[in-house]
Amino acid sequence: MKKFLLISCIAFIFSNLQAQEVVADFENFDLPQDTFLNGSDLSGGFISGDVFLPNAYNADFNSWSGWAISTKRDTVTPGLMNQFSSVTGTGFESDTYAVSAAFGPTDMNLQGESVRQPIKELYITNSTYAYRSMLEGDAFAKKFGGVDGTDPDFFVLTIKAFRDGEVLQDSIDFYLADYRFDDPADDYIVTEWTRIDVSQFGAVDGLRFTLNSSDVGNYGMNTPAYFCVDQVVTNARPTFTNQVFSTPIQVFPNPTTDRIQFDWTAANGLARVFDQQGRLVKAINLQHGTNTMAVQELPKGTYFLQLQDEQQLWRSTFVKK
Amino acid sequence: MVLCCSSWNVLLAQVDTSLTLPEYELNATSLRQVTTGTQTQIWDAKAIAHTNANTVAELLEREGNVYIKNYGLGSLSTSSIRGGSAGQTLVLWNGLPVHSPMLGLLDLSLLPTLLMEDIYLQKGGNSSAWGSGAVGGLIALNNSSIRDSSTSIQVHLRGGSFGQQQYSSKVTLPLGRFRLTSRWSDQQANNDFEFQAAPTLPVSRQTNARFRQRHWLSSLQYQLARRHLLTFDAWHQSAHRQIPPTLTQTRSEAKQYDHANRFSLSWQHLNNRSKWQAKTALFQEHLRFSDPLMLLIADSEFQTWFNEATLDQYWSSRQRSTFGATHSRTQATADGYVDGRTEQRFAIWSLHQYNMDRWQAQLNIRQGWIDGQRVPITPSLSMNYAVSNTWSSTAKVSRNYRLPTLNDRFWQPGGNPDLQAEEGWSQEIIVKGIGEIGRTNWQWNTAIFNRNIRNWILWTPLEGQAFWSANNIAAVWSRGLEQSLQLDWQSDEDWQWQLRFDYTYLKSTNQIALERPKIQEGVQLIYTPEHQAATTCQLRWKTWQVRYQHQHTANIRGVNDDLPAFQTAQASLQYTTTWAANRIRLFTQIYNIWDADYLIVERRPMPRRHFALGIQYNYH
User: Fold this and answer.
1) Looking at the partner chain, which of A136, A141, A220 has a beta carbon nearest the beta carbon of B250?
2) pTM, two decimal places
3) Is this complex scored with an ipTM above 0.90?
4) What is the number of H-type helices and E-type strands within chain A?
5) Which entry of A120, B57, B127, B335 is 20 to 30 Å from B32 by CA?
6) β partners of residue B552
7) Pair B461, B516: CB distance under 8 Å
């Protein structure tokens, strides 16, 4: 208890609680115009602000899924060859934006101080590839509205949040195209960056995006499974400008091969482990006393351990051998 | 004349005929082509002309009761025989597989019937004789089996709706020990037919659907010695084709260019009891798909070198065998391959036929290798029993397979070098009857078949996978019935009529429930009609012939939607006049005579009623 009070005092004395917004605008990649990053450097993803966008690149097949970063401006060319362009030809008030090839549920992970914090908003629009396909049809997918323009077609992006590895029930449906109106004049395909308020999810570890279309065949969705994201505003937790680093928490053994232990003096809290790319790789709830975290499944390397309760935050590192 | 061959009598007649032909003609019908117990239809040049079928696809659809998956006038056409995929129909040109080793299929709309001297259709598996791909059936195109060595000239002109124009010609010249036969064909069409995509919409006109295809096919035969014949065949083909938009696509500027050169050199030697044949061939093909809208140009090309040697041995009047070895080496390049790919195939095979009065039996066995890996040994056993002079029955059990194509193995992304061959066993029973009732000749043919194929290869986007990939994920059980009845009646020399009924019942179901494609266990395969029926009525009076054909195709499961059943009908009228060595045939044809609105492939419109007329001149 004495130890906890000491830490609390140090934190209180040397810290200055300060909430701040962190914006992921993807401009940090300094991409020249009309270029893209599709993960071919096998980095595994892209970090901007406090957002990590995973990328899966298959070097054997030169194929990618998940996320890419782009400055492509082609709003005219239909088809897969133009898969990295947004329908606006730019990002939201910027040049650079993220493109998702969401063939299945696709995650956006928070990192750093924004972990387990609410995400305020993000901007979404169609890719040129999906937009042109819905507008004009292609060899595989139908033009929306169908043959006579009356089919009640839709292309919807469902956003869910996850926390502690569990997907929350709440969801937001954002229609990238909607042809279900009684008056066909109301039918639309999104062609502008649209702000989506996602703060309703509360504190989260990230968002999960899923695309669905009315144009589905035996082989799955025909509409190209692409959308674009920009300007993700996360709320970094009230940070400690003078944080208490490492010293109060002893992690042992360190280096380790299978588990780490540390003492936790508060009633409860949360322990999270991040890899060097800032990805959350493990999380457990803390209990008062000595806590053990199994890490044998983690790849070798240096990891960041972050312990926190409602008021305070500690950080340490450990090495997995 | 359409021949249905599976009885010993017919076969024996052919064998005898070939053996007693002058030395010049060594093209005895191979045991491979008339395997006992196989449902075979043969159209010779005369029969092809009578049908007025323009392409092989049209011929098989109308005369063979084969389901042709036709993407529209002038567009891609592939076959599905007995529930097999397009790649499970083997297409041969003069005995060599002519389908693309990259795609595993051949576009049957690119094959004008007038190029060929005869066309065989075999339904059912025959991998033991022909190897990979002969699972559902076999289409054999022959241009060298010319029965007549005299000088002849043929010119064929045809025009029709939607800017259709066709010119083809054939010249046969005997020049001492040489015989040269050359064929040219040049056809084009705008295919800008009108259609109404939905009842509430105005009539539209098809766009971006023009095509032009040209062929030059020559055969030079040289009689080396009394019993030796050398044959050189060359076939040049080029096709430019626009790819029209679907019904749910506002525009298309896609086009495809197919270019092929095929050369074959064969040597035949006939002894009293044997026939040797050695063949070498080189096939080169280049395909370019381009879409200016998508800024896409995709090239692929391959070159295959074949070598084959066969020996037909007639042990006695009761026994006959064929032995053979075949080798092929394919080099292929494509944008989807990291580097050029090479594939080598080798196979040895033997066929034995034994005849005992009313019985005939045939045993085939084949062993193949692909890139040094052994493929399943492939046997077949068939029996024929002549119940009476009228009725005969045959039974056949065979193992059949299709090797993965080069794209299946190497295309990136999605190609899988570890794919297994599609393979399985087939059984079929055929009952045939032929007889007379008064002035009416009748032919009855019933075939019942059963086939199980496992390791069926499907390209599919697996869950969460960013690309389509080839996987051995399906097992297909196909079974069904094929029934035909033909009646020929002749009142006197002037009047003849013919009536033919064809019906096919086909149940072809996937036996493994799949998520992608979404197929429940036991559900009919897509683009596989359960019922097909056709009636053909033909009347001849003196030199006039009128023909009417009505076809019914049951509803079909598509990739996205189910397609309703449809009926189409064709009628033709032709007049033939002959003087001295000259013959002129005038013909006209009405397609889709009842103006049916139908789809064969979803979202691909088909033309309403349309016409063709033409003239054919023969000097013989």
Assistant:
1) A136
2) 0.83
3) no
4) 2, 22
5) B57
6) B533, B567
7) yes
